[in-house]
Design a protein that fits this description.
Length: 232
């Protein structure tokens, strides 16, 4: 059983990775493209590091904050160019979803240093269960049962891997290697998402998507180099 302090941390993790990130990004994806989301969420490694720096009161070099602002500026510029000069609520949802995930990563990675990583995500899901049951009852529609095999397969995959088994490895990696270092593994995420969206969903793999993905990832790499020498 987690202590009272650890229970609160599990609650924060649940709000971030069980509710916040999935809900915000899923709603955004109902009207936006996966390739667009890949570029916006490309800032997640740097955002995870920034939240970790603030959370644990680390002292990075001044250049780290400059690069962080540059990366955020690139994401905003991309959103403005894609939306004819406007920042839409879809972009806002993606930012909220990414931020929620990063908070969950930081708290989960830190808690996994004292608790078994598999217990951390499992407790987060246990805490989430009562609210999930209530919301399932309130939002149930008989038509869901008639959903296609592809839809149900996607639902099962999302339930088992991104929201459960994947965190076994992710939180253990964060606990062993440090949040700042291991979060950089997410650098491959925008490119994997762009390719997968192109193959599976028919999203156009545009030059602008690739260029901004590379630029955003570059700021993440630069930001890591300007971080404090002490890992956290």
């Amino acid at each position: 059983m987690p202590s009272k302090v650890d229970f609160v941390k599990c609650l924060v993790i649940a709000l971030g990775v069980v509710f916040g990130c999935p809900i915000f990004t899923t709603v955004a994806m109902t009207q936006g493209s996966s390739s667009h989301g890949a570029v916006i969420l490309g800032m997640m490694p740097l955002a995870t590091t920034v939240i970790g720096v603030l959370r644990f009161k680390a002292r990075p070099y001044l250049g780290f904050w400059f690069v962080s602002l540059l990366g955020a500026g690139l994401v905003v510029l991309y959103a403005l160019l894609k939306n004819s000069g406007g920042f839409t609520y879809i972009d806002g949802l993606l930012v909220l979803g990414g931020t929620s995930a990063c908070i969950g990563y930081v708290e989960g990675g830190e808690l996994s240093r004292k608790m078994n990583p598999r217990a951390v995500i499992s407790w987060a899901l246990v805490i989430s269960l009562p609210l999930n049951l209530v919301m399932t009852y309130l939002t149930y529609n008989p038509e869901y049962i008639q959903a296609s095999a592809v839809a149900w397969s996607s639902f099962v995959y999302l339930s088992l891997f991104p929201l459960f088994l994947g965190f076994f490895f992710w939180y253990e990696g964060l606990a062993i290697g440090g949040i700042a270092r291991v979060s950089q593994v997410q650098l491959i995420q925008p490119f994997c998402t762009l390719v997968a969206a192109s193959i599976l969903l028919g999203d156009s793999l545009t030059g602008m998507n690739l260029v901004f993905a590379v630029l955003v990832v570059s700021t993440v790499i630069l930001g890591k180099r300007m971080l404090v020498k002490r890992a956290y």
